[in-house]
Design goal:
By secondary structure, this protein is of the alpha+beta class. The protein has a single domain, classed as Alpha-Beta Plaits. The chain has three helices and four strands, in the order βαββααβ. It has a four-stranded antiparallel sheet with strand order 2-3-1-4. The longest helix is centred in the C-terminal third of the chain and has 11 residues. It is globular and about 35 Å long. The N and C termini lie close together (6 Å). The mean pLDDT is 98.
Length: 95
């Protein structure tokens, strides 16, 4: 299985949209073959090192994870995140 974790810093102008961005993540849940789980949420600590949003997904295989990258359900969410983020980091690992 593959766990995919992404943290996003959101541009100041888009921070009021944080709840809608989380909803957009959850809108993918159950719609992408091979995605076993999805969790997302806003940061609650707001420390110096905090990012604004987190997305954690679990895939049954590397093939499913690769297919997710170009899945039609994922593409509009990905596009929106590219528009609103100022930075992002990710980590993907097998377990």
């Amino acid at each position: 299985m593959i766990r995919h974790i992404v943290l996003f810093k959101i541009k100041e102008a888009y921070k009021p949209e944080l709840p809608q961005l989380v909803e957009a993540f959850y809108g993918m849940k159950g719609k992408i073959e091979g995605m076993l789980d999805l969790e997302a949420g806003q940061d609650v600590l707001h420390s110096e090192r905090s990012y604004d949003l987190a997305l954690i997904t679990v895939f049954d295989s590397m093939e499913s994870f690769r297919a997710y990258q170009t899945h039609p359900v994922h593409l509009p969410v990905r596009k929106r995140m590219h528009e609103v983020r100022s930075a992002s980091v990710s980590c993907d690992f097998e377990f």
